[in-house]
Amino acid sequence: MDDLDAQILRHLGGDARLSLAVLARRLKVARSTVQARLERLESTGVIAGYTLKLGEAARASRLQATVLLTIDLRIQAQIVTRLKAIAGVERIMSTSGRVDLLLQIAAPSPVELDRILDAVGEMAGVRSSESFIHLTTKLDRTV
Amino acid sequence: MDDLDAQILRHLGGDARLSLAVLARRLKVARSTVQARLERLESTGVIAGYTLKLGEAARASRLQATVLLTIDLRIQAQIVTRLKAIAGVERIMSTSGRVDLLLQIAAPSPVELDRILDAVGEMAGVRSSESFIHLTTKLDRTV
DNA sequence: ATGATTTTCGTCATTATGACGATATTTTCG
DNA sequence: CGAAAATATCGTCATAATGACGAAAATCAT
Question: In order of start, what are the domains of chain A with their CATH numbers?
Fold first, then answer.
């Protein structure tokens, strides 16, 4: 993970569909160098994959929410497994702090979001849940 | 936004570096059709961009945190502007619920993370802040 | 220093891209 | 309904990018 790797990550973080050839010209190295570097970054698990960022036009039909959960930690693994089985659950993180798990949820409609939030809140082992519905995204420069 | 568009989004969501040609073969339409569709999805703002997902190998050297803020809503715009100026702030969302803003923060070290959290917490107009440091990512199928 | 290992480079055959005119399909409205 | 207009899809060029791989350069260990 030297400077060249970092630059590759930064450029692809900005536009993951950049061609190897263009990237190589920008970084002023041979195309095959970038190709080798990228293969290594992928195979060593530095890069987990490539995805797209939806714009406002698409987010309009997508309600999102963040949920804080405190749970019975003895059955955390079980809870995580059951959360994964819910389609709208997009991210699950364990945290240090007042809560144990942090979820990010997406649903196509308020009704559906409500259904998911209920399902999560009433799951066995979930002691408390608090949810925050996303209104507008003011910034998103997620890597 | 018909079914073909949705399929294009789904495939590129899974792997944003798929070539147009491969994508077209998978969807069994002409490559130029996918090309035209994709150009439209991009120009109409359905797709905001393409980015990469970092794997555990890269996340190891990246501390992340979620922060809940209640603020003086009269100067929300100003606060958002100042938050954007902080390098580690990756996402800012306004929310309905007990808090006003939800931040996602990333830093290369605990010291740096602490510095950012302090800077945010002591910002003028911020009434209260609560932060949750991410320990492990149990699931990430963010679109 | 020198042999081993890793990294970078150049190049070939194959495949993908951008551009665009030609069909086909859908929409509009008399 | 049915013809004109507008969209969408397709096929096909010339150009560019990719994957593969051997050769040259740089780095590392002893």
Answer: 3-43 (1.10.10.10), 56-133 (3.30.70.920)
